[in-house]
Amino acid sequence: MQDLIGEFINYLSVERGLAPNTLESYGRDLRQYSAYLRSKGNLVSLRDASRANIISYLLQMEKQGRSPATIARRLAALKSFYQFLVRERIVDRDPTANLESPKLDRRLPKVLTVREVETLLRQPKVTTANGLRDKAMLEVLYATGMRVSELVSLTLADVNLELGYVRCLGKGSKERIVPLGSIACNAVADYLARGRPKLVKDHGERSLFVNHHGRRMTRQGFWKILKKYAAQAGIKKSITPHTLRHSFATHLLENGADVRAVQEMLGHADISTTQVYSHINRKRLREQYRNSHPRA
After folding, report:
1. Cys-Cys crosslink for 178: which of 79, 82, 144, 196, Cβ 3.0 to 4.6 Å?
2. Annotated catalytic sites, by residue?
3. pTM of the complete model
């Protein structure tokens, strides 16, 4: 069982170029499914599992109170896995064929208001090296809408302050160029001039944002920094690095940006993923109408 999962993960990595986090998620989901089969006591293998085994697995997750999103994700992993096994002629049939994922309630992502973002971005004290770095990271994240994994992966060569753009690698190692506004450019320039030299221990380090050890900032490290400043700003909403990405997209669309341009900047493969932000915009318009119109 583990050999089959290993072959599949290797295929996803080499042939499809999926990100390490995605590979880890696929592997975890498939190992949990494999453990379920072993727990049934009839030693059904991944290769020999039937449609009935998979339906039983999905029903057990439902009984355990797993969310529809979790069940849908695990079923997607199984579908992709069995399609791979059929393509490699390891199995003759796909037991997941025609199995439908549970319907998901499309929850609108939480976003900050423009005022909340401005308050958050004012929190870092630019009198210290850490403050200059934190200011630059927050400004770049909101200016570009990139994912936190993309932010901490930036190198010195990825940022062109003269032309005002940043190059980042998204999911599947897809490269995209995103504009960098003047305020974010200035914040990065200040950090490079007065902050980064005090943090870097090894002059061969090429990471743009480094921690107090002088090595590449981690996602977890940035999350702690963000939470600290959100608390200082008095923001009561639950905030994650993705909240700034959602806010970036929503604020652009609210101010008339084209949805396809926003799609390109976010690195979404499917425009339907970007269009969720249009729903937020329409929801806000309805709220403003109800609050403002005398006959609402």
Report:
1. 144
2. 147, 171, 242, 245, 268, 277
3. 0.61
